[in-house]
Design goal:
heterodimer, A: mainly alpha, 8 helices, 0% strand, B: globular
């Protein structure tokens, strides 16, 4: 679909979203969906859902790819590329500036304390993120067992996680999970 | 122990191609949670960071916009090789993986039964969830002797996973308390 003005508006919206995407891009998806599907009707709800399903099944930076596919549907390849840049350039620039500043005070006593307090909270959130993901995919004991087995294998063996992901894909494809 | 970064012997110089190649692999393999692969490559294989440093950089990402792994890419590149390192790492993370992913995804969007793919992805994400949980447990290991750290890791987990509190307010409340507790603990224990 080619709506005049849709492409620049999409890219501008993505720039703003990516700059305020604290907590990651997935947290911004409901807003993006409201803007693109409900607000402007540039693509259908089904298209939006398909883009999301597809980027989870392919390798690569998946949220950046998701924005590219939305851009592609709205304005072709140039907008796909512009969508990718709009999604990663602002967070990269902000990260770079903040990290430089942070490193300048690496030896300061206050930073040691901040790091000491900050790190455990982050780790708790990482584990909670895994827990939430297990629940999102949850349809009963089989998927819980798969999650626990994967965690156990990663902690206790040296098996490459790719094998585990492959096994998960097979189990899912067979409808067992 | 945990903060003796300066005392470690100087690591061999990390080259720009090495940064490019490492983040290329993290991005390209990154199924089921990029953080799992970031830790595997940066901590286990390359040994550029230890678990403590990895968790610290990840923490910084909590306060920055964008995917956490993008922040980590910029920070690691910049830490070892300045602006050029950040560019090399980001280029590795995005250029080739984006192209491959875009081509594959375009094919999928045209030809695949999305429903079948959703079944497969359910299996993958059940595994991915386990990998992320295990990665978190690994990161927790250097903290295990600190009661304050374990308490606040537990509180952050429970607040997000069980109480389902919104992320930003949760972080803004827990982090100052956790910093205060760490400070108190250090003064008591010495």
């Amino acid at each position: 679909m080619n709506v005049p003005g849709a492409s620049p508006a999409l890219v501008a919206h993505l720039i703003v979203l990516s700059m305020i995407s604290f907590g990651g891009i997935p947290a911004m998806l409901p807003n993006l969906r409201d803007y693109i599907v409900t607000g402007n009707g540039w693509i259908t709800d089904q298209d939006f859902a398909n883009c999301f399903a597809v980027v989870q099944a392919i390798p690569g930076p998946n949220m950046i790819l998701m924005m590219s596919f939305i851009g592609w549907k709205i304005g072709g390849l140039p907008v796909a590329i512009a969508g990718a840049f709009a999604t990663f350039v602002p967070p990269c620039a902000i990260s770079f500036v903040v990290f430089r500043w942070w490193e300048r005070f690496r030896k300061a006593e206050w930073q040691g304390l901040v790091r000491r307090g900050l790190t455990p909270v982050t780790i708790g959130l990482v584990i909670a993120g895994g827990y939430a993901m297990a629940q999102a995919s949850d349809v009963g004991w089989a998927s819980v067992a798969v999650t626990i087995a994967a965690a156990g294998f990663l902690l206790l063996t040296r098996i490459n996680p790719l094998w585990m992901l492959g096994a998960g894909a097979v189990l899912g494809g067979l409808g067992l999970v | 122990m945990a903060y003796s970064l300066e005392a470690r012997e100087p690591a061999p110089r990390i080259t720009l191609p090495a940064l490019f190649a490492t983040f290329l692999q993290i991005s390209l393999i990154g199924f089921g949670g990029p953080i799992v692969w970031a830790r595997r490559f940066l901590v286990e294989r390359q040994r550029w960071l230890d678990d403590q440093e990895f968790a610290e950089i990840l923490s910084l990402g909590q306060f920055l916009p964008g995917p956490n792994v993008i922040c980590m890419t910029v920070c690691v590149g910049s830490k070892f090789r300045g602006p050029a390192g950040a560019l090399a790492a980001v280029a590795g993370f995005i250029l080739i993986p984006w192209t491959v992913g875009f081509a594959l995804g375009a094919l999928f969007l045209h030809y695949t039964q999305i429903a079948a793919m959703q079944n497969i992805m359910r299996g993958v994400s059940a595994v991915g969830a386990g990998l992320i949980i295990a990665t978190g447990i690994r990161l927790l290991r250097p903290q295990i002797r600190s009661k304050a750290a374990m308490l606040f890791a537990g509180a952050a987990f429970a607040g997000l996973a069980f109480a389902k509190l919104p992320l930003l307010p949760l972080v803004l409340v827990l982090v100052p308390l956790s910093i205060a507790a760490a400070n108190y603990e250090r003064r008591i224990v010495g």
